[in-house]
Amino acid sequence: MQECNSCGKCCTKYSDGGLSVTEDEIAIWEIFNPELMDYVKDGKIWMHPQKGNQLTLCPWLRKAPNKNIYTCDIYEDRPDDCKFYPVTIQQMKDDECEMLQSADLAQPIKAQIALDRLMSDSRPPLKKG
Cα 66 to chain center, whole Å? Predict the structure, then answer.
């Protein structure tokens, strides 16, 4: 598995209503990053501030000029759904994630272990028991 190349496939696929946000995340945004709240309505994120409808793309996603590279203006404050992605090799395959390599597809169990290790700093620890 290779490192993320910032292709933006995950961001462009899920930013049109495919993400959820918790009440705790919203509460933190209200205190520490209130400009995010312009895009929150009734617990849903990335809503048009004036019209109230779902945006088709995350308002914090930026495409580099003349490149297929994306950056996130709220990377440190992004929703947990973003932080935890990707979760499974199958999800990455379905989303055509460019981190996957042919060896990962040939050995998905080994690749899942590598993914879990890679994402261990981003995801909450698994509950045992």
Answer: 23
The total of structural domains in the chain comes to 1
User: What is the rounded distance in angstroms from the CA atom of residue 117 to the CA atom of residue 77?
Assistant: 22
56 falls within a domain? yes
Q: Are 86 and 95 contacting, i.e. CB atoms less than 8 angstroms apart?
A: yes
Question: pTM above 0.85?
Answer: no
| Residue 3 located in a structural domain | no
- Give the Å distances, CA to CA, from 50 to 40, 54, 78, 84: 11, 11, 22, 30
Residue 70 lies in a domain: yes
> Taking the chain (129 residues) in consecutive chunks of 10 residues, what is each chunk's mean pLDDT?
90 88 94 95 94 94 91 93 90 92 94 88 66
